[in-house]
Amino acid sequence: MNRTWWRKLGRGGVRYPGWATAGALACVAMLAPAPGHAEERAAGFLLAQSQLPTTPTPIAPLRRRSDGTLEVVTPKAERSDSAHPCARTALCVGPGQTHATLAAALAVAKPGDTIEIVAGTYRESVKIEIKGLILRGVGGRAHFDCHGLALAEDLGCVLVNATGVTLENLEISGAALPLAGGGLGACVRNQLNQNFTLRRITCHDSQNGVLANGGDVVIEDSEFYDNGGTREMNNAAFIGRCTVTVRGSIFRDTKAGDEFKSRCKTTRISDSTFRSTTGALDLDISDGGDAMVYRSTLTKNANAASEQIIGFASDSCVDPGDLVLKDVRIINSHPNAKITNFGKCDGHAIVLQGVTVDGLPLREYGYIYTR
After folding, report:
1. CA–CA distance, 92 with 226 (Å, rounded to integer)
2. Chain segment 207-230, per-residue pLDDT in tens
3. What b/e string do you get for 315-352 counting C-beta neighbours within 10 Å, with b at 16 or more?
4. What is d(CA 229, CA 183) in angstroms, rounded to the nearest whole number?
5. Burial of 131 (0-12, 13-18, 19+ CB in 10 A)
6. Do 244 and 238 touch, CB atoms closer than 8 A?
């Protein structure tokens, strides 16, 4: 028996147990590549790699055409550069674009089309009569300045006379009509019962901000300020057989009227701000109805023309229901500020749930209870 436990193997100084030296050498011999085998294997790998299929082109977002088939949407083709700021599928309005004015684009638009308006100032008042149309500012906010202009149908700077219209990323100002005729010019108005959506709209320095007569109205991420002039002019007013939904919007600093007036059968407001500095009510739900305000802030300044912050069912009770305020913050600096349920909807209350008051205390009148 070989009693030498370790032997040196070659120049590497690696030692193996003496009793296993022969087996270890055999294993090393088996693992070592024969001369030329490494080169052959490398060549075989390169040949196999060259025969793999080419890398496929990445699949871009897909969009379904009106006929039900799919098309690939290429973002760079959809909206290329500053010289071509509009999406490929949109009608483009602006200096040097296909249409110099919004009126020109409206003349050729079809139901469901999108018109994109390059940022800048446009001196025109328009009537929209195309169902499902989207008007969108691009490259910044397009501004429709109606100061001194004749308003569409003597109603609004932008008049909606088709259902399902959406306005996005626009600034609108200067809408005014002679006071002898009532002075009800508005940034945005609709004809009877036409549904519309306002998204990222700024409206200011008009007799009224938005004035809706019926229909389903949605307002998102928008701001209405410095509108009004008389008690009958408001930042926002909704009448007729309407529903209104407001999310993340601001109504502030009307000159004399209400920040927000709704006569709708359903009013839903969330994550919004109302601030009365020189005007009347922050929130006026004149005809009752089902009204809910969530996670919003109402502010009453000491110089406001009206001491009312919230009024409910002051004129009638067309649609019986409660006004619920949940997780609402009220900031008050008016010494006589109050919340009033005028009681025209008998048995229906203003419900305060999680409402906090900062500043001076409020007075409460009528059927109001706290959960």
Report:
1. 31
2. 999 999 999 999 999 999 999 989
3. eebbbbbbbbbbebbbbbebeebbbbbbbbbeebbbbb
4. 9
5. middle
6. yes
Q: Which domains does the chain have, with CATH numbers?
A: 92-370 (2.160.20.10)
Residue 261 burial by CB count (10 A; 0-12/13-18/19+): exposed, middle or buried? buried
Q: Which residues contact 4 (CB under 8 A, 6 or more apart)?
A: 18
Cβ atoms 243, 216 nearer than 8 A:
yes
Instruction: Check if the beta carbon of residue 115 is closer than 8 Å to that of residue 134.
Output: yes
Taking the mean position of all CA atoms in its chain, how far away is CA 271?
12
3-state secondary structure labels for all residues of 249-266: CEEECCCCCCCCEECCCE
Confidence of residue 310 (pLDDT cuts 50, 70, 90): very high
- Tens-digit pLDDT profile for residues 265-282: 999 999 999 999 999 999
Tell me, what DSSP letter sits at residue 134? E
Question: How far, CA to CA in Å, does 19 sit from each of 22, 26, 29?
Answer: 8, 13, 18
> Measuring CA to CA, which residue among 139, 179, 141, 174 is closest to residue 158?
174
Cα(321)–Cα(319) distance, integer angstroms: 6
**Measuring CA to CA, which residue among 168, 171, 166 is closest to residue 147?**
171
